[in-house]
């Protein structure tokens, strides 16, 4: 993986580090408890967080994070507003990660993250992966999601991936537009495949083909 990717904005993109884990899981759990873009119903606990780290902490499926530069915090209040059920405010604490306090103190503010996930356990899908990307709601509209996705897609060749798939809840138009801007094409729609908060949910499938040959920058 490349080292920190610096840009002219007030954030940097780099490989995930263990001190980031609690913030990453907090972002996931807040959406699980308050939104429909992740179809899980139960927040990730400490064991699930460690499994996430085992897959995404290093290697082929290593995640990347967008972190605020020194002195820059997400827009909005320091405390994240809770959804109506008031559970999201404790999402991070509920994971019980057990990260040493000294390491948490050194962690930078995570604004968003992105990673690849194995598309299937069957060997024939070895070069296909699913994409997951998430940005803190207080930090959206700053181009963070697009930079995360583009940086991750740029690493496909070194990860030996040729096709990337995204599954997006059909009302998440911002995510659909983001994927379109990064070269994804529409691959289909599955109706009524999810249920959450008494809603029946549709899923848009989008697909990205990794460029090959000289035009891809490989020679």
Protein architecture, described:
A seven-stranded mixed sheet has the order 1-2-3-4-5-7-6, sandwiched between helices. The chain contains six helices and seven strands; from the N terminus they run βααβααββαβαββ. 31% of the residues are buried. Helix content is 25%, strand content 26%. The protein has helices at 21-34, 46-56, 91-95, 101-106, 144-153, 173-181; strands spanning 11-15, 64-68, 110-118, 128-135, 163-169, 185-196, 199-209. The model is unreliable at 76-105 (pLDDT under 50). It has 219 residues and is of the alpha+beta class. The chain starts with 10 loop residues before the first strand and ends in a 10-residue tail after the last strand. It has one domain (11-216): Aminopeptidase.
- What is the oligomeric state here? single chain
The first-level CATH class name? Alpha Beta
Overall pLDDT: 84
Largest sheet, described in full? Answer: 7 strands, mixed
Number of domains: 1
CATH topology (fold) name: Aminopeptidase
Outline: globular
C-alpha Rg, in Å? 17 Å
Reading side by side through the largest sheet, how are the strands ordered? 1-2-3-4-5-7-6
Structure classification: alpha+beta
Number of helices: 6
Number of strands: 7
Helical fraction equals: 25-40%
């Amino acid at each position: 993986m490349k080292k920190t990717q610096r840009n002219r904005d007030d954030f940097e993109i780099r490989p995930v580090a263990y001190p980031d884990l609690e913030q990453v899981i907090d972002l996931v759990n807040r959406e699980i408890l308050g939104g429909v873009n992740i179809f899980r119903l139960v927040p990730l606990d400490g064991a699930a967080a460690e499994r996430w780290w085992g897959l995404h902490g290093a290697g082929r499926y290593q995640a990347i994070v967008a972190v605020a530069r020194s002195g820059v915090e997400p827009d909005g209040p320091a405390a994240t507003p809770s959804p109506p059920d008031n559970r999201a405010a404790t999402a991070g604490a509920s994971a019980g990660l057990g990260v040493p306090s000294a390491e948490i103190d050194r962690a930078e503010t995570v604004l968003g993250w992105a990673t690849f996930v194995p598309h299937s356990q069957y060997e024939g899908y070895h070069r296909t992966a699913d994409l997951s990307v998430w940005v803190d709601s207080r930090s959206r509209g700053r181009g963070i999601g697009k930079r995360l996705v583009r940086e991750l897609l740029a690493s496909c060749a070194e990860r030996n991936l040729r096709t990337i798939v995204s599954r997006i809840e059909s009302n998440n138009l911002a995510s659909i537009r983001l994927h379109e801007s990064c070269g994804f094409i529409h691959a289909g729609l599955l109706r009524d495949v999810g249920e959450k908060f008494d809603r029946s949910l549709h899923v848009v499938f989008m697909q990205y083909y990794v460029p090959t040959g000289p035009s891809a920058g490989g020679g």
